[in-house]
Amino acid sequence: MTDPTGPHDKLGDESFMSAADLRGYMDKIALAKMNEAVEAMDHARHAKEELAKRLAEPIELTPQKLHELAETLLVKMRAAAERGETEIMVMRFPNTLCTDHGRAINNAEPGWPETLTGRPRQAYEIWRDHLKSAGYGLSALIVEWPNDMPGDVGMYLTWGKR
After folding, report:
1. pLDDT (tens place) for every residue of the chain, 162 residues total
2. Considering only CA atoms, which of 149, 118, 132, 138 is closest in space to residue 52?
3. What is the rounded distance in angstroms from the CA atom of residue 124 to the CA atom of residue 113?
4. pTM of the model
5. In terms of Cα–Cα distance, which of 129, 120, 133, 131 is closest to 157?
6. Terminal C-alpha separation, the chain
7. Cα–Cα distance between 20 and 26 in angstroms, integer?
């Protein structure tokens, strides 16, 4: 019978792992982490595809819906103004909702709004038809660069710039 409190002379029992066993254990942990990362990336890709699908479908802009949008926007604008800011992001969307995947936006081309589709196009039209004449500006830029490629677009409502 061996002394359970004394030194173990066998490295093969449960209290010791060989170097190969430890490396195998580490490999299993690394593989599990990689699988989790791949699953998370797949989940994020799926969520982005669903968002793009939803944003590609225009919404019915009834007078009631326009009023709701205006109320929400006003609250956000007031909060930003109280912080001393002169712009807010009003929409973030995948570059796939631009006919050129954001190329015109990235290059600050004057005709960039013509590349918009779906709800981003509607947001531009709301600005053009209701906010531009009141002195508000609208800008867009690429706000995400996955793998050094254009990703999401941010659309900003601006004010207070002279």
Report:
1. 555 555 544 555 556 777 887 788 888 888 888 888 888 888 888 888 888 888 889 889 899 999 999 999 999 999 999 999 999 999 999 999 999 999 999 999 999 999 999 999 999 999 999 999 999 999 999 999 988 888 899 999 999 765
2. 118
3. 7
4. 0.71
5. 131
6. 89
7. 10
